[in-house]
Amino acid sequence: MGQQFQLDRFGEALTLFAAARRQDRLAADAWKAADIAVRAIAQRWRQPDADIWELDPGPWTHSRLTCVAGLRALADAALSHRLPVTCTSLADTVLAATAATSVHPDGHWRRTPDDPAVDAALLLPALRGALPANDVRTRATLAASRRQLTEDHFIYRYRHDNRPLGEGEGAFLLCGFVMAQAQHQQDRPVEAHRSFERNRGADRAAGLYAEEFDIAQRQLRDNIPQAFVHALLLETVARLAHNPKPDDVHRSEGT
Predict the structure, then answer these.
(1) Last residue of a domain, one of 56, 73, 101
(2) What's the structural domain count of the chain?
(3) Which of 62, 72, 77, 67 lies closest to 40 in space, CA to CA?
(4) Is 119 among the domain residues?
(5) What confidence category does residue 205 fall into, taking pLDDT thresholds of 50, 70 and 90?
(6) Is the distance from CB of 71 to CB of 12 less than 8 angstroms?
(7) Which residue range(s) make up the domain with 143?
(8) Mind listing the pLDDT tens digit for each residue in 82-131?
(9) Helix, strand, coil % (nearest 5) of the chain?
(10) pTM assigned to the model
C-alpha cells in the first residue's frame, strides 16, 4: 500500500479542507497543502492509479470523479482563489474526459473505460458534489447498483464474475451506508432508511463493524473493526436527519 499511487486521496483531502473551511476550522497555512493536492491532480490525473480500494493500476473512474468532487468543494469554500490552478476549470476538464470514456451505454458510470461493470463505490462522488443529484449518470448509477448489486437491502461493491454475488465476497457495509445516502439524495426516504437500518444491524455485540457482511451466514467478514464503515455510519446518520438539499450549481450538461 505504501508504494501505491492512489489518485483519489488527493480529492478526498480537498473535500476535507473545504469542510474545515466551512466550519472555520482550517489553519491559515493549510492552503499550501491544498495547493500541493491540486497540483498533483493536475499533473497526474491521466496516469493509472490503484484507487483507495488498492486495485491493480488503471484509469479508475472512482478516482477521477473523487478528484472532481474535491476540486468543486474547494472552489465552493472560496479557497481556490488563492491557488495558481483554477479548480473549477480543472474539475470540468477531468469530468469531461472521464465522461467521454467511462459512461456505460445504459447511462451509468463504468469502473474503467475497459470495464463496463457498475461499482457501488461510484455512488459516492455524487454525494461529495462531483455531479448534481439530478444528473442522469447519478440516477443511472444508483438504479444499476440497486438492480445488479443489492440483496436483502445489502449491497456488494461490484460483480466479480458470473457467480452469485455472495460467492465472490461479502456485502460491503460501507457501500450499504453510501446507498442509503444516495437514496436519501434522490428523496427516497423509505428506501434510504431501510438500507440504513439493514446495514446498521450488521454489527456484533461490541458495536463494531467489519468491512464485509456474509448475508448467507449472517456474520461479519474481513477487516474488523473497519474505520471507513464507522465513519460512513456516522455520516449517514447526519445526512438522514435532514431533508436533501436542492441541487447545487454544478451542472454537467454536455459533459
Answers:
(1) 101
(2) 2
(3) 67
(4) no
(5) low
(6) no
(7) 138-255
(8) 665 688 999 999 999 999 999 999 999 999 999 999 999 999 999 999 99
(9) 50, 5, 40
(10) 0.89
